[in-house]
Amino acid sequence: MRNLQDTIHRYGLAAKKSLGQHFLLDEGITDRIARYSGALKGVHAIEIGPGPGGLTRSLLRSKAKHVYVVEKDDRAIAIMQELAEAFPGRLTILHEDALSVNLLERVPAPRRIIANLPYNIGTQLLLNWLEQIYATPGSNFESLTLMFQKEVAERITAAPGSKAYGSLSVFAQWLCEARWDMDLPPEAFSPPPKVHSAVITLTPREKPLVEVPKEALEKVLAAAFNQRRKMLRVSLKTISDCPTDLLMRANIDPCARAEQIAVRDFCLLAKTYLDLTTHKE
């Protein structure tokens, strides 16, 4: 096979800013990313936006049962077809928009996503997959090993008390265990982005950390973090006539701020909110 630089030149695959493309060409790094996803024997590996195919090659060289790539860019499809010929029966190409394809319908279990996500849609893709994890607990993805802008990765994995901690942190960690895998500097990519990147792995829980309807949790999180500098007894006035009573019933200090509250406590707060709202009705 041609090396990645030759492949990019031959197929005219200049990175497009509109597609959030920054290609990872060091196969030593892509091999590491593949390893972070764990033993792939018997697993259907899914990659989003393979571009010139650096990570795709690493996945094809692994013991994954089969590799699926989702690629919107017409220019990269020919590269994927060349890889499919080089690895007969190992690669399926889904020439579709990753934001609309239903991976649970298109890829058989067991599934793992391993991807250098396009920067401009990475967060929305994660939210879509978290929705599926919530809707189909225990039968969706074994894990998601994903590359984001470092700032986004920090938001997903943040602990209470940090500036990065927010509604995305709570929602992701409510449904998944989160692990930080590696940092990547801009010069690891072609072209180099203006930001640092990071790889994290999310492993879906068999069931949510606390059983609570997603809609109730989302409502509490939106109210709490929309005014994150204010005490909860103030910020929760948008959803409760008596937020101090609500917080005390949930054993949360009414003077605390949103960034101080643990994931489990936010879930218990949402359950208390739902119980009080249902009783009131």
Helix/strand layout:
Blueprint: H1 4-11, E1 23-24, H2 27-36, E2 44-48, H3 54-61, E3 66-70, H4 74-86, E4 91-94, H5 103-106, E5 111-116, H6 122-135, E6 143-149, H7 150-157, H8 167-175, E7 176-184, E8 189-190, E9 197-204, H9 214-226, H10 232-235, H11 243-249, H12 263-280
Helix pairs in contact: 2-3, 8-12, 9-12
Features:
Helicase, Ruva Protein, domain 3, alpha/beta, two-stranded antiparallel sheet, 2 domains, elongated, 12 helices, 281 residues, seven-stranded mixed sheet, Rossmann fold, 17% strand
Parts with pLDDT < 50 across at least 5 consecutive residues = none
Report how far the terminal alpha carbons are from each other: 66 Å
Indicate the overall shape.
elongated
Tally of separate domains: 2
- The helix tally amounts to 12
Query: Main β-sheet: number of strands, strand sense, barrel status?
Result: 7 strands, mixed
**Class of the largest domain, according to the CATH hierarchy?**
Alpha Beta
Rounded Rg: 21 Å
Please report which band the strand proportion falls in: under 5%, 5-15%, 15-25%, 25-35%, 35-45% or over 45%.
Answer: 15-25%
